[in-house]
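hiii, so i know i said id send this last week but things got crazy w the move. better late than never?? heres the sequnce for the chain we talked about at the cafe, plus the structure i predicted for it. fair warning i was half asleep when i ran it
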Amino acid sequence: MLGRGTRLLAGALTLACMVLVGPSAPSDTLFARSVLVGAVRDVVPNRVMTWNICNPCDESNADRAADIATYAPQVIGMQEACVRDVEGIRDYLKRRYGLVYHVKYGSVLQSWGRCGGVPWSPGGFGQAILSAAPMTDRVNVEYPDGGSEDRGYMAVTTEVGGRPVRVFNTHLAQRRQEEFRAGQTRVLAAAVARHERAIVLGDFNAVPDSPELAPMWALAADTDAQCRPSSGGTCEPTTDWQSKFDYVFLRGITPLRHRVQPTLSSDHHLLFTDLGPT
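okay and structure toks below
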């Protein structure tokens, strides 16, 4: 992951280039202007988002909440999430923007170093799902072998498009740990296969044509119709290092449009999609 100073420098250089040579795309494809406090009062129906919020990073939960409020998804899957940070983000979303979310956690570590707290009561670290609708039937599964750090997936049932849907959120093993990700993807795919309608959010730490992602591609399609696990696919990067690691896989659900939005709050971009009617 990249430090805040590195990301700020990258943003400054990009903006300087824009001034010198002019934009080749709409300006909001760089860094969106955060919504004003009090300007949002409800979520966008049928919009789901995945975001690795970056940890350990010295970022403000108020800034993270502002990034989320700009797009106000109905469902949000966060990775590298500390329980205390998620609580703070949810509080800012409610108090400043009128956005009320239920939250479920899928912690895989109790980490004082990553999440603060005290040695005898450290903060939980892992995944979290925020949903405007209530969530039920939460499961939290730690992969048999996480690689260099414990990893897992969580799943809940909530309502999207007026119907119940199973939502998964995962974070696979770190880069250059393909053998661990292969085993993790098999575990995840077996769980997803039990559901006719499913949304799988997460940071897979692998580009689309990575062999370890084959079980997921066999079950579901990425929200980006142009992104396929072949050399003919065109996949928009979702990280500051210009790789696509973040996915919204859809099973039995049709996407309408999607967007990848860089942010100064993380080394991963916001990735959200609007889903079609049932």
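btw The longest strand covers residues 121-131. thought thatd interest u
miss u guys!!
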